[in-house]
Amino acid sequence: MSVIVTGGAGAIGRAIAARLHGEGHPVLLADIAPSVADVAGQLDAAGPALVRACVVDLSGPGAAATIQHAASDLGPIQLLVNNAGITRDGRALDLSDADFRTVVALDLIAPLRLVLELAPNLADSGAIVNIASRAGLGNFGQANYVAAKAGLIGATRSLALRLAPRLRVNAVAPGLIDTPMTASMPPEVLAKLVAKVPLERAGEPADVAAAVAFLASAEASYVTGQTLVVCGGRSLAA
Asked: Which residues have a catalytic role annotated?
């Protein structure tokens, strides 16, 4: 199974790519950050499956064609993981038009465009996994991010209907995950967030990667249009 992972330079993207590559799958990592080449090099050194990197602005025109060209020697692509995303937080009434549009462009429109443009070339019985967020249920100070991720969850259901039975489409919605972004939070803010998680800890990028690996596997061959929430129970808490 050859794989495309967007947002491959980030903590969660790296974990997803490492998990799938560790299972023997050729992987293309796509990201706007040039450091994605370093991540690919680290995976490649672990061998033996092929690893490729692609520096690309996913919100720009031609992104799908660039990715497809970069993955041309990996064989038929059977899995697309739409992981790339950004935040531009702020109170809803204070969000600038640019902050709203930028987040929606990368977190919602870009993955939908990739699906629509790459799906015809994905191998039969392939899969698409969209990385959404528990924030799709609502978060203070993230109206733009919430709108994008809620839209991605809804689009996942719609795409699952459209692309069945040839392709399966699911989503993973992480909650609080231990990444450089969360580590940069003031300790008191992070402690309050962790206190709201029933499992009393932040998740690890590997937890998200495990969920993606399951949804991509034959064990999930009868699962489509679903969102697997990986949040330590936070979505259940008051």
From this structure: 145
Give a yes or no: residue 212 inside a domain: yes
SS3 89: coil
For residue 164, the number of C-alpha atoms closer than 13 Å in the C-beta half-sphere is 14
Overall number of domains in the chain:
1
Q: How confident is the model at residue 185 (pLDDT cuts 50, 70, 90)?
A: confident
Domain residues for the domain of 141 are 2-230
The pairing of strands 77-82 and 2-6 is parallel
The residues facing 54 across adjacent strands are 30
Q: What is the CATH number of the domain that holds 125?
A: 3.40.50.720
Among 115, 117, 103, 113, residue whose Cα is nearest residue 148: 103
Q: Which two tokens stand for residue 73?
A: 């020697």
Question: What confidence category does residue 139 fall into, taking pLDDT thresholds of 50, 70 and 90?
Answer: low
Residues 72-83: pLDDT tens digits? 999 999 999 999
Q: Is residue 18, in this structure, part of any structural domain at all?
A: yes
The closest alpha carbon to 85, from 200, 193, 171, belongs to 171
CB 83 within 8 A of CB 39: no
Query: pLDDT over 70 for what percent of the chain?
Result: 92
Which residue type, as a one-letter code, is found at position 79?
L
Distance CA 118, CA 191 (A): 41
User: Does 235 fall in a domain?
Assistant: no
CA distance 8 to 37: 9
